[in-house]
Amino acid sequence: CAIDVGASTGGFTDCLLQRGATRVYAVDVGYGQLAWKLREDSRVVSMEKTNIRHLEPGMLPESPDLAVIDASFISLDKVLPPTLRLIKPDGVVVALIKPQFEVGRGQVGKGGVVRDEKKHQEVVESIGELARGLGLKVLGVCDSPILGPKGNKEFLIHLQKQGDLQPRNTEVPEE
Fold this sequence. Notes:
Blueprint: E1 2-5, H1 11-18, E2 24-27, H2 36-39, E3 44-47, E4 66-69, H3 76-86, E5 92-97, H4 117-133, E6 136-143, E7 155-161
Parallel strand pairs: 1-2, 1-4, 2-3, 4-5
Antiparallel strand pairs: 5-7, 6-7
């Protein structure tokens, strides 16, 4: 099974189902966004009005093998640690890195777009360091083939937990 953090309309959930996922926990703080087709699919467990930072191991009936993350208006440093608590010891994470939510507020350009390639690189490196600090192996990073809604360049990072290695920091930063 898999967990989709920041499920929204369910784009990643749909991809997971098309590629054979037996169950997807679609987690989002919002509500009423998940596509009707997915809402009606027995393989999808819609968890609307749910903040990933408030989910604890045992709150799901099973531990997902895979987590996908497409969170908006929040940094991965706040979303990745609680997600890791929920997935299996050898679980895999594919996360969308959105520079507009990772750089400091004063570094986002006009219209909410980060255009500076140096900032893109810094953000990707920073998320890689965060992941390694959490005990993850970085398997790869690539440009997202789809631009964000306002034209933001985004990136996909592929991570894997390394068994029962204890992360250096499992605290979830407060906002």
